[in-house]
TrEMBL record:
SUPFAM superfamilies: Rhodanese/Cell cycle control phosphatase (SSF52821). Residues 20-101 form the Rhodanese domain. This is Rhodanese-like domain-containing protein. The lineage of its organism: Bacteria, Bacillati, Bacillota, Bacilli, Lactobacillales.
Amino acid sequence: MLSLFKKYPSVTTMELAELAKGNIRLLDVRTPSEYQGGHIVKAQNVPLNTIESYQPTKDQPVYIICQSGMRSKQATRILSKKGVEAINVRGGMSQWHGLTKKGK
C-alpha cells in the first residue's frame, strides 16, 4: 500500500544537543526576526520561503529546525526531494534547552 505520509528522518532536540557537540550542518528555517530573537549557535538562517534555492554540499546531513517542527518538516521534505540527506528536528526551538544566541 502506498503511504501518503512518507516518513522522513528526524531527531529530538536532546539528540541534536549531543550531535551539535560535533561538526554538524544545522539550518534554522524560521523568519529572520525569529532567528535573531534566539537561535542555536551553529544554526544558519535559511527561511522556509527560500529553502528551494538552498544549495548544500551533499557530503554531510543537514539538520533542520524551526519553532515547533512543522516548517522544518516541510523543509526536510523539500530538500529530501532534491537528494539532500535532510533530518527534521522534532519539537523545534520550543523544545530546545541548550544555549542560544541572539542577533545574527
